[in-house]
Please model this.
Amino acid sequence: MQTGLRKISICILFFCVLTGANGQTVPSSQVLQYLKQKIKVYYTGRPNDIMNFSIHEISADTISANTDGVIFGRGGNNRMSTSARLLLSLFKERNNGGDGSFQDWVYQVLRIKDKPVNLYFFNDVMLPISEMAAFHAGLDTVSRDGGLRVFPAVWGRNNDTEAGNIQIGEYIFDDDLRLFKNTFIELIGYAALGSYRTLHNSGIYYFTHSGLDNAVFYCSESLMDCRFSVDQAICMAMARTFDTARQRLLYNWVTRPSLTLRKQLPAVTETTLSRYWLLNQEQYRSISSLFSVLPMPPYSLNARNSNGWFNFSNQETRNETGKLYKLRNEVTLAVVLNYIIRKEGLPKFLDIIKYDDYRYLSAPFDSKLPVILENAMRVLMTPQTPEQLTNTAQANKRYLSPIALVHFFSGRSPDFNFQEFSHYVGQGFPEVLFNLYSPNIKSAIASLNLPANDPDAWYEIRDEIHRLLTSN
Model:
């Protein structure tokens, strides 16, 4: 794909982000005012001081009027400088230090529920978090450099007057404002989806393995309750689309041999929300050491269960269990949803989440994937009905993208049918919608070939799928 065309598509995307359902652009002043109304900011400078524990509110108007960049303390930010820069990006006017694109994305995602969120910043750079402080404040923690640090998390209750509460520390972002913004989009997304304490995908890594001919592997490290994998995919897709440079991480997942490390977490209930559950870090301290003890392929089912690794690097291990897992993996799903955001725009994608009185948000965990794909088709085909489309020879069939993408990622079988589709996404998707997947589109998708080891391959495949759906 040519660089110029890619830049044009990115510009179109960000124009779409600002556009509401009525086609009118939302004024920047309205965006900023909404953020000030819906986001409350709090700060604890000494979380370890349990006897004198205090939380201070920081006014959004104070941040907006700030001229010296100091948010957390007098005369300095108590080493919370990246957090301060995040808040300035969020609440300053865009022609005076604010990040307009960042504000627009947060605005759109917050409007899923249109409820306020609370941000709690904990200072974990002056001193590591003590075990007692983690218990006392209900913090999720991760071990870094010999001490516990705050791990970003979201908690709350569904059907509440607020979308949720977000806990954030400074340490793990290591002066990386770009990563902080990307993570913040995911956190806001989780609050909007009512998916609490599940943001624990730490990105995509690569490594070589001597037992596998020193091949370069890509892997995602997911530390999360797997019931929320579709929510994770939605939030990851939005965050990676917001930061276009980070989309390449998703695309590398598609084009390279890939593995997944997943650790199942205990279910978190209302009665245990005050307990932290990442404090025991013995198995999480060194991801690199886990890489070095990979069992040799082919993996048995017992090896997969005990080690948490799934291998998709060679034909012997690409069985149906592996294919099913990889398709439902949150990273692969994020690529599927990233396609919809890029081609249809973020507001349209958020309409898919809100479709039919938020049926996605209330869907059972094992039904969320077929529901979000069904919502996507119904929103993209509106105002026409499936019956109308069955009897219409229509060139533009972009509403078929959910089925086409599942077909593509499940192996591009020429005989792809409804039973196979249901096997990969789960039960509940309406067969009447699948029957709109015409033989000529099926044949075109089946003939696509994804080049190996080409980091730009998905850009080209994505555009080719879009061309096939809009010109047949």
